[in-house]
Each structure stands twice: as structure tokens, then as C-alpha cells.
Amino acid sequence: MPELAKDLKPQVNQKLDSVGPSGIRAVNQKFAMIPGIINLTLGEPDFNVPEHVKEAAIKSIQANDSHYSPQKGTLYLRQGIHHYLMASQGLNYDPETEIIATVGATEAIAASLFTILNPGDKVVIPTPAFALYFPLVTIAGCTTVQVNTAPDNFVLTPERLEQVLAKEGDSVKAVLLNYPCNPTGVEYSKEEVEGLAKVIADHHLYVIADEIYSELTYGVDHYSIANVIPERTILINGLSKSHAMTGYRMGYIAGPKDFVANATKMHAFLVTSPSNPAQAAAAEALHNGLKDPVKMREAYQKRRDFMARSMSDMGLEMATPSGAFYAFVKIPASYGQDDQRFANEMAEQAKVGSVPGSAFGAGGEGYIRFSYAASDDDLAEAMKRMKAFVAVKA
Fold this sequence. Notes:
The protein is α/β, with parallel strands linked by helices. The chain contains 13 helices and twelve strands. The protein has helices at 14-17, 23-32, 51-62, 75-89, 104-116, 133-139, 158-168, 190-202, 257-271, 276-288, 293-314, 339-350, 376-393, and strands at 38-39, 99-103, 122-127, 143-148, 172-178, 206-210, 233-238, 250-254, 326-330, 352-353, 355-356, 367-371. Strands 2-8-7-6-5-3-4 form a seven-stranded mixed sheet, sandwiched between helices. Strand 3, helix 6 (133-139) and strand 4 (143-148) form a beta-alpha-beta unit. Helix 3 packs antiparallel against helix 10, helix 4 (75-89) runs parallel beside helix 10 (276-288) and helix 5 (104-116) crosses helix 9 (257-271). The mean pLDDT is 95. This is Aminotransferase.
């Protein structure tokens, strides 16, 4: 096997060299090596893809649909995205000029950031936040302005955003807003969204709205910021969470056509175009599967309630999730803020895997994240083990 030439080892993108691998994936891989562990680390739905969606992918393959699609994705898929956004949020995006089908929401976020940022720019990110955001901004040669939302019940308030922007100045180019939030599950109300939109508009900024969990809300309706400031919103979404299609890697961008024209170039440089069978499946889900997430959402809500009761029984504080499928839990006081030590010891001694909250930025320190997108039996056993562990360690 070849070993890289010694003189080439220093030849690496310095910005890439300055960021580590995904903290979530690293923890998952580490804990997966522990025999008998119940690993609640990854946000991976435990449901199967709906049958009619799978059939669409199979038919695409059987029809020899094997040639390059348009770079923005097939028109039928983009029409499906238009249909879904109109039906679910009342948002009207032109399939021809205002929508791009991407290789997952991950690529959508990367392409969007690389389209609007120049070296030296800053991006405001409320924390705790999905760990992917930070390295992408760094690789773009830019700086993240992390705003700890823990004191405000894990919500970025308009007042706090105004304070941050006053301090950081004109170098801030965008706010990256994820709601319902990974890792807290916190959803923003219509009033909170409208308040943030006003501040963003007053400061002439983009908002990158990662709304990948918009179909998974409990007792509240998701309200997209694109309803308020569509001229400033880069809307990110996809099929991974709503239809359990994580491995299909289908996401999308919707936004003003001038932005989309530039983002299409970046998207094409990164991936050329998405896979045809995955596009066929996504188009079927969006045209004919708008009710598919209901069963999953009902199951997740029951699991959320179970997790909340379990944490209460253990005397642990948990953020109140009104969306997504994560429990964000304050660790016992005896550990201080050392969430990594708590997660490691619980994995090794109780055989329950979680993600240290510090992986999600400064706002996550002192917490751990569980994914309850797991079977009821696994969750019940994991909470039984955790309760015994906490009783000894607290």
C-alpha cells in the first residue's frame, strides 16, 4: 500500500488542517466499539423509506435513467419541491429559477456558504448548533460568531442578535438559523421568527434557514422565516428526516433567483448533479407522500414524552423539544461542565452512547445529546441503564 511522500505531507489546505473531523461521527465510531452498547448518537430515523418512494427509485433504475440530469435536478423533482413548499408553508418558488436539488442538506449548506462568503466575512451561529456549520465557515476562510443561547432557553432572541451585530460590525454577512434545532429540538414561534427577521433585514444580512426538521414538530406549526423575508432567505431542506431517506442524500435550496443562479454554479462545481434514482424517489415523496411523515412524527412525539419523563425521574434537566428527535440533557452537577467525561463514563460503564454537548459549540457545554430516533425497546433499556448509572454518579 502506498504511503504519502514525506515531502507532500505538509501540502494540505491549511484551513482544512485547522478543523477536526465531525465530533458526532467520531463519538459514534468510538462508542460503537464497546460491546453491548446502545448507541443513541446519530440522528438516524429507525423507520424504513415508504414503499411508494422506494418503488420510484427502482423504476428509475429499470428504465435505464442513467444519464446526467440537469445540474439543478430534474424539473419533475423541482416541481415537487415547489409543490411541497406551497402545500406546507405557503411559499412560492419558481421550479425553473429558484430551486436547486442537492446531494443532501449538507451539500446545500456548503454550496450556500461558499456562494455568499468571501475571506474575512463572519457568520452568526446560535449555539448549540449542528457541528457541521463551524468547519464549513472556517474552510471558506471566514469566522463564526457563536452566540450562546443557553441563558435564553436555547432561542436566539432579537435583542441578543442586535447586541451581537452592534459589536461585530459590517463584517457579518449572514445568520445561520436551524429550527427545529439540532441538538436541542427547540422550535421558534412565529413571533420569534418575525422579530429575528426584522433585525436581519435592518442589518442587510442573509439568513441561511436550515429547516430540515420542519416536518417533525409536536403541537406547534413550523413557520419559515422565508414567509417574512424571502428576499434575504436561503431556505435549506431535504428528505432525510421527513421520509427517513438519509442514505438517499437528497436535499434542496430555495431562494431568490439571483442567488440561485450563483449557487447553481457552486453546486455544479461540487457535485455536477444528484443521483437519478434518488431524485426519482424524492420527487415521488414530494408529489405524493406529503402524509408519509405523520406516522413517524407521532412515534417520535411518544418517544420524546418518554425521554422527558425518564430525565425527570432521574432529576436531570432537559431542554423542551417541540421538534426534531433529540433530547438535550444537562449532566449531573457532580460533573460540572465536563460533558465529555460524563459521556465517556456512561458509554463505558452503563453502555449507553450519547454525544457531548460541547460538540455543538459553547452553548452546549455541560449537556449531552441523545437521539430518540431509535426503537422503543432500545430507548427503554438505555434509560434503565442510565438511571442506574446516574444514581451512583450524581
